[in-house]
Amino acid sequence: MTLFLFVLLAALVFEYINGFHDTADAIATVVSTKVLTPRQAILMAAFFNLIGALAGTAVAKTISGGLVSAGAVTMLTVPCALLGAIIWNLFTWWLGLPSSSSHALIGGLCGAALATAQGNWDVLIWSSVDAKGSAIGLWPKVVLPMFSSPLIGFVGGAALMWLLMVVLRKTTPRMVNLIFGKAQ
User: Fold this and answer.
1) Are 148 and 161 in contact (CB under 8 A)?
2) Mean per-residue pLDDT pooled into runs of 10, the chain (184 residues)
3) CA separation for the pair 52, 101 (Å, rounded)
4) How many Cβ atoms from other residues are within 10 Å of residue 136's Cβ?
């Protein structure tokens, strides 16, 4: 019972740290550009973080299955994974480095599973296929998206910026600021 309460406490602490770690990044731009007041930005972030947590389970499903062997996850592995993620989030927050809380949790889970399996790297599922034929494992679910999504975002952002520059080339800076200030 004590271990269960510790796991619950560690999960609550992780969620709290995840909230202040990610929310600051999410609201900094709209506050610094004066599109929203700090109060409005915090209320908007709190509302949408709650909706996001209630509406989607994709991250939870990714973390809960198909990354490490189920036999390597014990009741002690879970709080160790959470503590690893908490420490990493606090360390990167203290240094002012942007980092993903989800990736911190995945790293914590992999490290805790490795420790539980006494260094047996076979507990990590790098790439496999589940019963439905979907790709599972660290490579297709974590590593590949970690490198491809910034590249896709960069190319998409550059294309959008080029398109906006072509469309708005004869528009005055005052009008552009007015339009995009409201659009934000």
Assistant:
1) no
2) 85 84 75 86 83 71 77 88 94 86 91 93 89 86 92 97 92 86 72
3) 15
4) 19
- Tokens coding 31: 């506050």
DSSP assignment of 70-138 equals GGG--TTHHHHHHHHHHHHHHHHHHHT----HHHHHHHHHHHHHHHHTTT-GGGB--SEE-TTS-EESH
Q: Tokens for 64, please give them.
A: 């809960």
- Integer CA distances (angstroms), 34 to 31, 127, 139, 182, in order: 5, 45, 40, 11
> What is the spatial distance between Cα 127 and Cα 103, in angstroms, rounded to a whole number?
17
At 60, list the tokens: 């939870």
Q: Residue 74 contacts by C-beta under 8 Å, 6 or more apart in sequence?
A: 116
Which pair of tokens denotes residue 40?
A: 């409005």
The residue count of the chain comes to 184
